[in-house]
Design a protein that fits this description.
Length: 467
């Protein structure tokens, strides 16, 4: 039988130079319940091929949902015509780094077939029960919602210089929200989890009931919580906030295309940018804990992914690369080329970004804080190419005299990422992936994860000032 791989191989053989064919089939299933009512039950299917060529240093790209040999051949010819048409306009010529780690063979993540076979009714029952329990968790909770989605991806990635990989991934995600009120104030409590693997992967760190409890307690605690006291403070960042900082404020600045455009990381290889306690990595594997939401065995250029150490014991040692940027910087590709859909060209993107665990215990870290905050519950924010960031957090407690004290209202933390990392004086031995739910945006979405240990550092906390 004529398979999609057979057709891709046949079409690539018609190319006169380097070419890449990427077949991508995505199936998404989603459901949500709010106020006891089913508000979404949907299924989507998206399938096609992206064809990319490099001719005399100029890229050409075309995509098609026509999977016949004729349709694929037309797309290849379109890509080649685009490369020829841009020759006179291209000032800087592109080239590819030789990839010693081109993928060949089958790469199916554990849990793919198990989740595909799991009855949708069982998933819907869990969503309904969770939403019901969340609404009933406290008298102050007026309404609640629970949403579940699962993303199945199948890819064939072939290149004329040797990549030939079949990749199957599945990424489930669960989100819960509780809406509380006491007459004077309305609050929202959230919890979420995303993973790569089976249904059970979502609950490796804690059972479903804990997600319900956390969302409920967050909403109720905020009703009576006082405003935070602002100023430069010693804080302990939970793994979720460490992941947010690592991804948004550091990770994007070391993506090689952003570096070339002038990010704060430009020219800093070999320099001290953080405390010696900090080793920060990005990996296609799930390091230290199972089920990371950005697990990626092969990138969308057919390069086997690896663990890339970005900061080693405080020094910046690597950027994140695709094959083109690796050639520009004369290094090996790191396997960070990713495309969201078959009609998208691969961009340099993160996978699972994290800080390595250290040797302190959380109890020791709290005991060492006389006046500060324990910060958890990412609640939006932003970061830019300078490394400057501002993040919200909605699960925050005061630390007084070395002990956890009362919850406070939503806070903002801000600073320059590398300066904050230089202030780190303790890193815990704990580790968790906490950012697997949702998407990273950079011209196109990507499923990623981020996390790490607990980290003690100094940041600017937004709140009322003493006076």
């Amino acid at each position: 039988m004529d398979t999609i791989r057979d057709r891709l191989t046949r079409v690539l053989s018609l190319s006169s130079g380097w070419a890449e064919a990427r077949y991508h089939k995505r199936r998404t299933r989603a459901m949500s319940v709010r106020k006891g009512e089913l508000t979404d039950m949907s299924s989507k299917h998206h399938e096609g091929v992206g064809l990319r060529v490099l001719r005399d240093g100029v890229w050409g790209f075309a995509s098609t949902s026509d999977l016949s040999v004729e349709g694929l051949t037309r797309a290849l010819k379109t890509a080649e015509a685009m490369a020829r048409g841009l020759q006179s306009r291209k000032k800087e010529r592109s080239r590819l780094a030789p990839a010693k780690r081109l993928a060949k063979g089958e790469f199916t993540v554990p849990g793919y077939h198990e989740l595909m076979a799991m009855e949708m009714e069982r998933k819907l029952d869990a969503v309904r029960q969770s939403e019901s329990k969340l609404r009933a968790a406290a008298s102050q909770i007026e309404s609640a919602s629970c949403a579940y989605s699962e993303l199945f991806e199948e890819k064939w990635i072939l290149t004329t210089d040797g990549a030939d990989a079949h990749v199957c991934l599945v990424r489930p995600e669960l989100r819960l929200s509780a809406f509380a009120a006491d007459g004077a104030r309305r609050t929202v409590g959230h919890d979420s989890v995303g993973a790569t693997g089976s249904w059970e992967c979502l609950f490796r760190n804690r059972p479903l009931e804990k997600f319900v409890d956390n969302a409920a307690h967050s909403a109720v605690d905020l009703l009576k919580a006082p405003d935070p006291e602002g100023g430069k403070k010693t804080v302990i960042l939970a793994p979720s906030m460490v992941g947010l900082l690592s991804h948004e404020a550091i990770g994007h600045t070391v993506e090689a295309d952003f570096v070339s455009a002038g990010s704060v990381a430009q020219g800093k290889i070999g320099q001290e940018v953080a405390s010696p306690l900090i080793t920060l990595c990005d990996s296609g594997a799930t390091e230290h804990a199972a089920g990371a939401g950005g697990l990626l065995p092969v990138d969308d250029e057919g390069v086997l992914t690896e663990r890339t150490t970005i900061i080693k014991e405080g020094r910046l040692v690597s950027y994140l690369h695709n094959r083109e940027s690796a050639a520009r910087y004369d290094v090996e590709p790191t396997g960070n080329a990713r495309a969201w859909e078959f009609g998208d060209e691969p961009l340099i993107r993160m996978r699972n970004t994290y800080i390595e665990p250290g040797h302190s215990t959380l109890e020791e870290m709290i005991t060492g804080v006389e006046d500060g905050y324990f910060i958890d519950g990412p609640d939006g924010g932003q970061a830019d190419a300078t490394g400057e960031f501002m993040f919200g957090a909605n699960k925050v407690r005061r630390i007084r005299d070395g002990k956890l004290a009362e919850p406070v209202q939503i806070v903002t933390i801000s600073g320059i990422a590398f300066e904050v990392l230089k202030s780190v004086d303790a890193v815990s031995s704990d580790f968790a992936w906490e950012m697997g739910a949702g998407y990273c945006g950079k011209m196109q979405p990507a499923r990623v994860d981020a996390g790490g240990p607990y980290v003690r550092c100094r940041v600017l906390v937004g709140g009322r000032q003493r006076g």
